[in-house]
Membrane-associated enzyme, PAP2 (Acid phosphatase) superfamily
Amino acid sequence: MPALTANTRALQSCVILTALLAMFFLNWPGVDLWFSALFYRPQDGFWLAHLETVNALREVIWKLIILTFLVALGGLIFTKLFRSTTPALNKVWEVAIMTYVLGPMLLTDVILKSHWGRARPSTTEEFGGTAQFTPPFVISDQCASNCSFVSGEGSGVTALLITVMLVVRNSGPSTASKIATGAAFAVAAAGLSLRVIMGRHFLSDTLCAVLFVTMITLALLHLKRYRSLKLF
């Protein structure tokens, strides 16, 4: 029996982590409320959401998500119009674009956020709103559109991080690649954190966003055309 590749092991780990996460939050849904409450004040609401610096940082991260997608799209178009000398990167752009389309755009925005019905923290009764709190893996009717499960920007920063990792892992090692990887992790961590501290998403929304988008990429890397690419 052939040894499992790093991508296969990573996919298995993501599936297991998702199952454990589902069981955890279904049994202890109050953890979401407890964690969000750390950033909530009865008199001020989610007060960090009112700070200009926090909103400015969020805008910067959102623009980086779009910029990374456009760079990947530009790379893909370039390789289709002109023969590239780096076949691995040709495939990287394809996987990056499919990750963005299938993850943040299709699964997150079109399917989950539009139909799951989970209310955002700031709209729930526990935090001054009128909607009922519901666990992450339970379909609800407390939100009509653009709902909490899962985080759209969380999915976006995950796709950004994955794109950078794909480029770095499938290019020659260098100091610049290490800096780019570190910066991408920092952007992803900040983007995920902001959605929680601003009261726009629960902790589970962001964790699920990371796992779902990562599993999509790892599933793509199991296709014959992309098996030679490295992510982990």
Q: What stands out?
A: The first helix runs from residue 6 to 27.
